[in-house]
Amino acid sequence: MKELRVLTPDYICGLVDGEGCFYILDGQRKCCEFQVSQKPVAVLLELKAYFGCGYVKPKYDRSGTSVFVVKSTKELACKIIPFFRKNPLLVKADSFERFAKAVEIIACGAHRTAQGQKKIRSLKSGTSETIRQTSGTVSE
To answer: pLDDT digit string (tens) for 12-37?
Structure first.
């Protein structure tokens, strides 16, 4: 197996801009999920080691692609979000900002209120009011 180079923040940002997703799940359970898809599983294993969290699994579509996944609100808030605050994305900056605000709402428990649920729905839909509605504190 070919040995990979150590991942750099610039490489990670480029990889996530191209192959990453920031999901806001607004079902019965409110949660957020960060994913990166890639065929060479070794890259995803290095990503997992770099962040020190998450897991790697095969994608369900039988394409030979694997996915690095982080679901833990704590790990998203303490590891993933600070990384992308320090190393901004280019292509997925707006998606990341909505995701980061949703994680903040969930982390403090405000998603259990009607107002918090409304903010989560707004962030998920990406409406033009989203950033303005959530730019203050979560308990507005």
So the answer is: 999 999 999 999 987 777 889 999 99
CA 31 – CA 91 distance, rounded (Å): 23
Domains of the chain: 9-134 (3.10.28.10)
The helix (H) or strand (E) run that includes residue 25 is: strand 20-26
pTM, rounded to two decimals = 0.83
Tokens read off for 62:
């039988």
Q: How far apart are CA 37 and CA 41, in angstroms?
A: 9
Q: What is the DSSP string of 44-108?
A: HHHHHHHHT--EEEE-TTSSS-EEEEE--HHHIIIIIHHHHHHS--STTHHHHHHHHHHHHHHHT
pLDDT tens digits for range 80-109: 999 999 999 999 999 999 999 999 999 988
